[in-house]
Amino acid sequence: MREALDQWLFVYAAVGVTLVGTLVLVASSLLAMRRAEKRREESRRK
Amino acid sequence: MNAKTDRGLKPKHQRLVLVIVALVALVGAGLLAAYALRNQASYFYVPADIAASPPAPGQAIRLGGMVENGSITTAADGVTVEFVVQDGVARVPVTYAGIVPALFVEGSGVVAEGSMGADGTFVADNLLAKHDENYMPRELEGMSTAELREELQESVAGAGE
Amino acid sequence: MHGFANPARFLRIAKWLTAPLLVSGLLLSFGAVAWGLTQVPPDRLMGDTVRILFVHVPAAWLGMGGWSAIAIASLMELVWRHPLAAIAARAAAVPGAAFTALCLITGSIWGRPTWGTWWVWDGRLTSMLVLLFLYFGYIALSSSLAREGQSSRIAAIFGLVGAINIPIINRSVVWWNSLHQPPSITMGESSIDPVFLWPLLIATLGFSLLFGGVVLTRMRAILADMQAEARLRRKALQAEDIVR
């Protein structure tokens, strides 16, 4: 008896995890940067 | 920082030597540990290891190697497979009842979890397929370089017509 | 080497470089993965699961590359006292950990249909998991040192000591029998067919550019935080002087 799994399911899962993970990483880094740079500008003005 | 002043130069070299000495000691310790782990950290035994020092029957071990070409036979019950694992030095017959992974084929790598039976047959409870380092599309399989070149020329000639 | 020591000069270059790196990285990596999903033929043995190669290998490369960057920056911090090195090391930790985790997850998803198991404790998989835990330790240590305003020298030593794991990961499939296959690409030789190799190289380049962009983004965030804090502290001191 040979195992027969749907290969595409695994492919989509792996690719999906990577793309979502990458986008979350980029977005969170950009947001953190924008927040920090805004805080710096505010400290300059005050 | 005052790295450019003369005062900063000497401690900088001191730190460099210190870090290099520490790194050398560290790499040495790491290599030593890896060397000591050489046998223990292996995930499986190859047939040559089994032949050199046969494990006690019933002792749980993993056996890895290549599935010998033409050795896979399926028993009458349709679930039990028998095959031979070899590593070019020794061969070990294996019997396994269960679902085999999709990549389990003759001439490919396999890792069997189980124990040696009294008759010198390895009784596996679990089979894992081991992939090799080659990645090749299906249609090119088994073609030699000369054949590939011929194929390429044909397709180029076909495109020119 | 101290050309970038001036934060204002570094910030000017970083500001100019961040967006191009992120955009080109996203385009190249996602494009190469899409290419791998649609244009590449199935592997002779693995079939369609070979497409996981295009996300798994770049993730593994960046997981190890991230720690190599931490180690190099730590060395520069300890020996040359380069003021930006500690910030660079701290900025590389989270993306490095993220890609190490992605490498482990995609590898596990790949292992199930090919090997027949989600996980085994062989040399390669175990040493990669150790790398992930080293990242967790490094992130906890360096962020707590930064929060308390202490020197990051202990984190730098940790970054250097942890680098011993990188050659172990790399050699694990050669030194020990492992379920993971030996390296396919060694010293300019490749046992990967060109139809797989090209999208793999482009995906790796794309994810690497993306990694660089994320590190710059995080360095800018850390620098901005430090500058804001320094300014607020200075103002507080001035205010005290005026009161006196």
TrEMBL record, chain B:
Keywords, in A-Z order: Cell membrane, Cytochrome c-type biogenesis, Heme, Iron, Membrane, Metal-binding, Signal-anchor, Transmembrane, Transmembrane helix
GO cellular component: plasma membrane
Location relative to the cell: Cell membrane; Membrane
GO BP, one annotated term: cytochrome complex assembly
Gene3D superfamilies, per the entry: Nucleic acid-binding proteins (2.40.50.140)
Pfam families assigned: CcmE
Ranges that cross the membrane: 16-37
Residue ranges annotated as Extracellular topological domain: 37-161
Main location: membrane
Protein's membrane topology: Single-pass type II membrane protein
InterPro entries named in the record: CcmE, CcmE-like_sf, NA-bd_OB-fold
Annotated residues for binding of heme: 131, 135
GO molecular function annotation: heme binding; metal ion binding
Stretches of the chain found on the membrane's Cytoplasmic side: 1-15
Role this protein plays: Heme chaperone required for the biogenesis of c-type cytochromes. Transiently binds heme delivered by CcmC and transfers the heme to apo-cytochromes in a process facilitated by CcmF and CcmH.
Family: Belongs to the CcmE/CycJ family.
Name of the protein in its database record: Cytochrome c-type biogenesis protein CcmE
Lineage: Bacteria, Pseudomonadati, Pseudomonadota, Alphaproteobacteria, Sphingomonadales
Gene name tied to this protein: ccmE
UniProtKB/TrEMBL annotation, chain C:
Transmembrane segments: 60-80, 92-111, 123-142, 154-176, 196-216
GO cellular component, one term: plasma membrane
Keyword annotations: Cell inner membrane, Cell membrane, Cytochrome c-type biogenesis, Membrane, Transmembrane, Transmembrane helix, Transport
GO biological process, one term: cytochrome complex assembly
Domain of life, per lineage: Bacteria
Record keyword Transport present: yes
Compartments, as annotated in UniProt: Cell inner membrane; Membrane
Role according to the record: Required for the export of heme to the periplasm for the biogenesis of c-type cytochromes.
Family: Belongs to the CcmC/CycZ/HelC family.
PANTHER family recorded: CYTOCHROME B_B6 PROTEIN-RELATED, HEME EXPORTER PROTEIN C
Protein name (Swiss-Prot/TrEMBL): Heme exporter protein C
Native organism: Aurantiacibacter rhizosphaerae
